[in-house]
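Hey, quick one: can you model this chain's 3D structure?
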Amino acid sequence: MTKTAMLLVNKRARNGAGRIDDVIELLRNGGMEVIEPHVNEQDSFADVIRRNADTCDLVIVGGGDGTMNTAAPGLADTKLPFGILPLGTANDLARTLGLPASPLEAAKVILGGVTRELDLGDVNGHLYFNVASIGFSAELARILTSEAKKRWGKLGYGVAASRLLAQSRPFTAFIEHDGIIEQARTLQISVGNGRFYGGGMTVETSAQPDDGRLDVYSLEISHWAELIALLPALRRGTQGRWKNVRAFSTTGLTVRTRRSHAVNADGEIVTRTPATFKIRRRAVTVFVSEGSE
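Sure thing. Here's the predicted structure for all 293 residues.
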C-alpha cells in the first residue's frame, strides 16, 4: 500500500536551502507519495502537522534540532510517525539515534520502515528531544544567531563559547527532586532526555531517549578556566565523575533561581526559571536504522 508523507523542510536551516530533489525522487521511487503543504510565515511546523494530519501517514522533517523541536508538539498530538532529514548545524537528535549524516541515506532509513518510540522532555510545558539547560548553554543559545550557525557550522559554537566564557559567572540555584531540595552554586544546569547536545557534547554516556529518565548535571565550578579541563569529560558524558559536578537521574525536578534565568531547549530559548521538568513517556515515534537501540 502506498504511504503518503508530509514533507516539511526548514529553508533557514544550515543546509535547508539546498536542493532535495534527489531525496524526493528516492522516496517516490520507493513507493511513497510526497506532499509539501503550504507553510504560512506565522505557522510553526507543529501547526502545519496538526492542520494536515488527516492527509498523510507520516511526516518527514528536514532541518536541525531547533526544527525538530518546533515539530515536536504536533507529532506528539497527532501520533504520526516521523522521519528526520539532518539539514542543521549539529543534528544532535539524528546523532543520538545513529542516523546517517547524508539526507539521502537518511531517506533510505525512512523507506526501511523501522520505528522507535521516544520520550520527550517537558520544561514548563515546552517539549524537547535532547537537552534543556540553564546558565552558560542558555546564554550561548541566546547569542549564537541562526546566521552565525549557517555560516560557521559547529565552529560557530566554539567561537561564541570562547567569547562568552570569560564573562560567565556562577549563579545560585535550588534543585528540587525526589523529595529533596539541594542548593547549588553553578555555572550551568543541564537536563537531558537524549544523549547529545550543543554540537557534540554528551549529557550522560549511557543516556537513551527512551529510557524513562532525565539525566541531570550541574557544573559547580568557581572559575571558567575549570570548564576547559572539563571539556573532554563533557564530550564523553563522564562529567558526573568529577567532584565539582553534581549528577543524577530522575523522572522530574524543579529548578528555582534567585533571579530569573533563561532556559534553552534543543538550542532555542523557550522559557525562564522557575523551571519544572517532566518526562513524557513514548510520546513520539521516529524512523530509525535496523538494529538501532
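One thing worth noting: Residues 11 and 17 are 5 Å apart (CA to CA).
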